[in-house]
TrEMBL record:
Protein name: Septin-type G domain-containing protein
Assigned keywords, A-Z: Coiled coil, GTP-binding, Nucleotide-binding
CDD domains from the UniProt entry: CDC_Septin
UniProt cross-references to Pfam families, sorted A to Z: Septin
Source species of the chain: Mucor plumbeus
């Protein structure tokens, strides 16, 4: 049998990546980014800095304080379409205003967890339909959890929510406002956060390090080594002492530059999210988190059966508790009023019984007197007849 010979130019298999590139470039890609953390940590500023455009509007302090009166965690979705070099990305930014802002944060993470699970549920339901064209994909591909730079470590609330997020989404811890800590304090804080993450078995997203390209391996190592990422957010252009115009914040002691690796890890985090590992985040969500949710649901549910709601909405539960308290208070007031009315009836009954006994006594006395009169009248009649 003669061996099969191939021309030096090949048969065209090598063009398959180019064809795939054209298909993906024409369709674009969906990318959903969730930012989670307490108010005032610069989440909106970071998003606008990351994409170098105004995607999320800033909230005025007055509205922020008015919002706190609700005592609930809500979900805000901001959608935008970005285009760069003929490639479009449909970006969805999910914010969680109200999280961690109150004294009692019991179960405040439930709306966040429910939102992530609901996106998996919605996508799975669309896959079960006869027509699966134009599916809406809002599955969260990355969750940036902003940590307050208090100089110590993770709080109990941070640990609880990060445990639940790590099993559902690509969790990326971020130390907010890194310019508020000295370099030495920042490194100590980073180490404390790493120890707390390891001690509590919190799953965080870590990019693949090994690669066939040595440069890529070194780059991945540098990205993985700085986690949790310390960031500085600023959309303002300031001028440094040497005449450079950079994004940063100006202080009396100098300028904190956003894109300076000596000041923060913003560039490494941007590379992880957008430039080098966005496809990894999307694939990991599709192949790991979504598949795990799908397998769990298909093992416990029948085909087409609706999902059981295990958790409650804190806002509805709070209203229910208020209604229960109001109802209990009204019942208590009615019972007190009924007891008071009952006591009055008992007193009135006793008074009437006493009056009745008094009347009976008077009647008996009158009957005795009447008998005596009859007896006296009868004796006189007999005397006259004699």
């Amino acid at each position: 049998m003669s061996s099969l010979s191939v021309s030096s130019n090949g048969i065209g298999i090598a063009n398959l990546p180019n064809q795939k590139h054209k298909i993906i470039s024409g369709k674009g890609v969906n990318f959903t980014l969730m930012v989670c953390g307490e108010s005032g940590l610069g989440k909106s500023t970071f998003i606008n800095t990351l994409f170098t455009t105004t995607i999320k509007n800033y909230k005025s302090p007055g509205k922020r304080h008015d919002k706190q009166l609700d005592k609930t965690v809500e979900i805000e979705i901001t959608k935008a379409e970005l285009e760069e070099k003929m490639f479009k990305i449909r970006l969805s930014v999910v914010d969680t205003p109200g999280f961690g802002d109150y004294i009692n944060n019991r179960d405040s993470w439930l709306p966040i967890i429910d939102f992530i699970d609901d996106q998996h549920e919605n996508y799975m339901r669309q896959e079960q339909q006869p027509s699966r064209q134009d599916k809406i994909d809002m599955r969260v591909h990355a969750c940036l959890y902003f940590i307050r730079p208090n100089g110590h470590s993770l709080k109990s609330l941070d640990i609880e929510i990060m445990k639940r997020l790590g099993s559902r989404v690509n969790l990326i811890p971020v130390i907010a406002k890194a310019d508020t800590l000295t370099p030495n304090d920042l490194q100590i804080f980073k180490e404390n956060v790493r120890e707390s993450i390891s001690a509590n078995n919190i799953n965080i997203f870590s990019c693949a390090i090994d690669s066939e390209d040595e440069y890529t391996t070194v780059r991945n190592q540098s990205i993985a080594a700085v986690s949790p990422f310390s960031v500085i957010g600023s959309t303002e252009i300031v001028q440094t002492s040497d005449g450079r115009k950079v994004r940063g914040r100006e202080y009396s002691w100098g300028i904190a530059e956003v894109e300076n690796d000596n000041h923060c890890d913003f560039k490494k985090l941007r590379n992880l999210l957008i430039r080098t590992h966005m496809i990894d985040l999307i694939s990991y969500t599709e192949d790991i988190h979504y598949e795990y949710y799908r397998q769990q649901q298909m093992a416990t549910r029948k085909f087409g059966e609706p999902k059981l709601k295990k958790s409650e909405n804190p806002k509805l539960r709070e209203k229910e508790e208020m209604l229960r308290k109001t109802f209990t208070e009204k019942v208590r007031n009615e019972e007190a009023r009924f007891r008071q009315w009952e006591q009055q009836l008992i007193k009135e009954r006793d008074r009437l019984n006493k009056d009745l006994e008094s009347q009976h006594t008077n009647i008996k006395r009158l009957e005795v007197e009447l008998d005596q009169l009859y007896q006296q009248g009868g004796g006189r009649n007999r005397t006259v007849r004699r």
